[in-house]
Design brief:
By secondary structure, this protein is mainly alpha-helical. Helix content is about 55%, strand content about 5%.
Length: about 260
């Protein structure tokens, strides 16, 4: 895993700036934003197998990677907003203004949750989405010869994915618009290409399975990264959990 390039000195300055009022939910810390974006972008490039500069101009690969990269920047802006908002809310405890020492203790808990616990899973998701997005281009290019896809879990698959295992449907079936992997954080499932002479999963069986897993899969994963150009879609909590008074700011700053 790439190292998250945000030092202890950076963290201390962030906390000092929030406490001093120069950073808040409407004045976000650019250094943290760029650090998150660069980290997730590294995961995206790793999964995709290329950086922008390595791809031919006017290629489908370049267009897709540009869309995915833009999405990473929007997500990073939303992530920066959410943790800054949470830390700013910790300046007071009820009617009492916290001392700097008290604030720092609580703010560090928020920082670690966002940038240690959650960022690791988001980085892994960027790798997986990049990998499966570029694979979708290959799938589309080969569908005349390999017209079907089979959902394949791994030995480490969680119960969320298990019901989907072995579903086999045509490449252009609407099923792949929502259930194309990955389907949760740290998901390692893949879609395997199949030839024409395979048994397809009956529609009623697919309907039954998707009804079973529909409530288990977070809506932020119900998409196809190769078709939509998203690593993290609009249903991510970072995008949706915005107070009404900040909706305009959010739209202007991170979509």
């Amino acid at each position: 895993m790439a190292v998250f390039n945000y030092s202890d000195e950076d963290i201390n300055k962030l906390i000092e700036d929030i406490y001093g009022g120069t950073v808040d939910r409407r004045n976000l810390p650019e250094s943290l934003y760029y650090a998150i974006a660069d980290h997730l972008k590294a995961g995206l490039y790793k999964g995709f197998g290329s950086e922008l500069s390595e791809l031919p101009e006017d290629s489908a690969d370049l267009e897709l990677l540009q869309e995915l990269r833009s999405n990473v920047y929007m997500f990073s802006g939303a992530k920066t907003y959410q943790q800054t908002r949470e830390m700013t809310d910790l300046l007071t405890d009820g009617d009492k203004v916290r001392s700097f020492a008290e604030f720092k203790t609580e703010a560090l808990k928020v920082y670690d949750q966002y940038n240690v616990d959650w960022l690791k899973s988001e980085y892994n998701t960027a790798i997986a989405q990049g990998d499966m997005a570029v694979k979708w281009l290959s799938i589309q290019g080969q569908k005349e010869i390999l017209p079907n896809l089979r959902y394949s879990t791994t030995e480490a698959a969680c119960p969320i994915c298990s019901p989907l295992d072995n579903i086999c449907l045509p490449v252009d079936d609407p099923f792949w618009d929502e259930y194309y992997p990955p389907n949760h954080f740290n998901c390692m499932c893949v879609a395997e290409q199949e030839g024409p002479d395979v048994d397809l999963t009956p529609d009623d069986e697919v309907d039954s399975i998707t009804e079973e897993v529909g409530n288990e899969i977070n809506k932020s994963f119900l998409m196809n990264s190769g078709k939509e150009g998203y690593v993290f879609n609009e249903n991510s909590p970072y995008f949706t959990h915005i107070p009404k008074e900040d909706k305009g700011f959010a739209e202007d700053n991170f979509g």
